[in-house]
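Researcher: I'd like a structural prediction for the single chain below. Treat it as a standalone chain; there are no partners to consider.
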Amino acid sequence: MLVLLASCGSKKQVYYADAAMNEQTITAKDKDQKQYQKKKDKQVVYSSDPTTRYIQQYAAIAQEEMRRYKIPASITLAQGLLESQLGQGVLAQKSNNHFGIKCKREWKGKKVYHDDDAPGECFRAYQDPKESYRDHSLFLVERERYASLFRFKKTDYKAWAKGLKRVGYATDPAYADKLIGLIERLGLWKYDNPKVSPDFSVRDRDVHIVQKGDTLYGLSKRYKISVEKLKKINRLTSSEIQIGQHIRVEK
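Model: Treating it as a single chain, here is the predicted structure.
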């Protein structure tokens, strides 16, 4: 599958193909505690679909930021997906910068230079993507221009998306619509509930990427699931679907 994304402030377009599936094994043991604890090795297999893989990798981090700073996890994830081009953009790959945050005067950390609104602009560089997520939270929390956002409920992602555009987070006039579209198509709203964990059981065949000529009725026949069920699990208000849209098709 070939994907094309452009970040809100960049004039460049980036083409990339699906990366191969990778595995990460996480083992947790602690022999120093009085009560010996042993957890079974937990094998995490990330999806080969770049969108699903990004959500699997960063949803829990976005939720942790939500717990600390009251920023909806859905908003953080949607911004990360969009700004980093699913983690495959130049800034994300070169400097772990997932939110397109520029240096600003107060930045004392590492820097990287990249053509954006102007040639050779200065962007922040991080050792790890998690640092980028934390800096994104602090960027919003510590600036007066974003103070109005924190009057909204953590579950009101539409208000947050529109608010970010209104106070000037991005120059793209469609920025709020793009964030809301990602949140609703990918079901990111569910991560605003801190009890919901990232889903590592989602298989590639559980998600259909809309191609030219696809209709919701055709997908219902193909995957043997009713149109109404498809609309419900994808939170669709009509039967209209768009090329490139991710449709969950599991029963």
